[in-house]
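G., before I forget:
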Amino acid sequence: MRALVLHYGVGNVFSVSHALKRLGVEVIVSEKIVKDVDCMVLPGVGSFSAAAERIAPMRDEIVDMVRGGVPTLGICLGMQLFFEESEEGPGRGLGVFGGKVVMLPPSVKRPHMGWSMLHVKRESPLLENVDNTWVYFNHSYHPRPSNPQLVLAEANHGIDFPAVVGFGTVYGTQFHPEKSSVAGEKILRNFIKIVRG
Amino acid sequence: MVAKRIIPCLDVDNGRVVKGRRFVDLREAGDPAQLAANYSEQGADELVFLDISASRQNRDILVNVVRNVAEVINIPFTVGGGIRTMSDADTVLRNGADKVSINTAAVKDNTLVKRLSETYGAQCVVVAIDAKRSHKMLSGYEVYIYGGTSPTGLDAVEWARRAAELGAGEILLTSIDMDGTEKGYDIELTRKVVEAVDVPVIASGGAGSPEHIYRVFDEAGADAALAASIFHFGVYTVADVKRFLRERGVEVRL
């Protein structure tokens, strides 16, 4: 099984690549779209505007793959890119999901950095056998989907916010499964099961 | 609700984990990747990896250690020590670190914090502050750089506030007076910085028992506690500390 880890930004894509490799996946890290793959991962590094700028030239190709049924997992910023726009700065998201990305409330520390409890709201293959568990977050913004049914799990930091969104074969996590120890590994395994069908 | 974090620190010199007392007198403690894997299994929430030889030695050794450590763990990981430029930061991030910690370079060039934050996001940038008691400073604490050897004339609490404004996503605050003593964190210093900034603060320097870690959470309001010696020499496991904390009502990931 081949996974494309789209390196549209800066920083650490090593960790997610390595987490997938540990689970037996062949990983292709590329700054450009590679079509001959079984799934795609949009990792979570950098700022929304910088990422939106980097994906702009391949926006249609990415959207075609996602809408065309290539199972896709967006992590943190990667998940935020599924939406239309972000309060973090200018730039156009992929618009695969309706809604925008907003800042966490000023009543709490930002970034929301560390381990918080995941509260599962809706059954989904990605969260199969995942109970409420600690996962690792590192973000200041979160999505606000126009369709509340996209929200598969929530976490709380000042407010309840969507921690996992998904529809069809498109999934996104606001936390970092590749950094969430055993719980995160379980979620990545579930994603691989979805890809295998 | 975010859990209080327990962060073992790996001070690395020439590819090996060491632990000093008041920044000198180094005792060797082990292989970085092996210690990292052990801590990850014990339930460490994060690791911090400081290359204390960075100014003197070949950076390639560090890059290899970063890669080796990142390959064996699935928890977040900060790397610091001798990171002076955007390119230094890029190298460690590309090799598996989640955050970079900058200390001396941040003091010498404030724009580095801003530039790192704009490029990688604030959540990726940790500003490490080594502070020492000084009656000359308004807060009572002065910032030291170059591994705690050189006073700057900067007030530690003021510098923490400024660093957060510049884009630090987290402050790693070490008490030079308490570091390596195992007599407990500097509660007063930690509380002052926690009150001054709205980003998470990691307390460091002086942990000798689970009680010390409890106190820095309870009395100083730290978001995370960093410790080295008590874990490296197997006196306590991370899980021991977390059980102790949970019994006292502190929310931890266990």
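Residues 20-26 of chain B have pLDDT under 50 and may be disordered. Residues 198 and 223 of chain B are 11 Å apart (CA to CA).

More on Monday.
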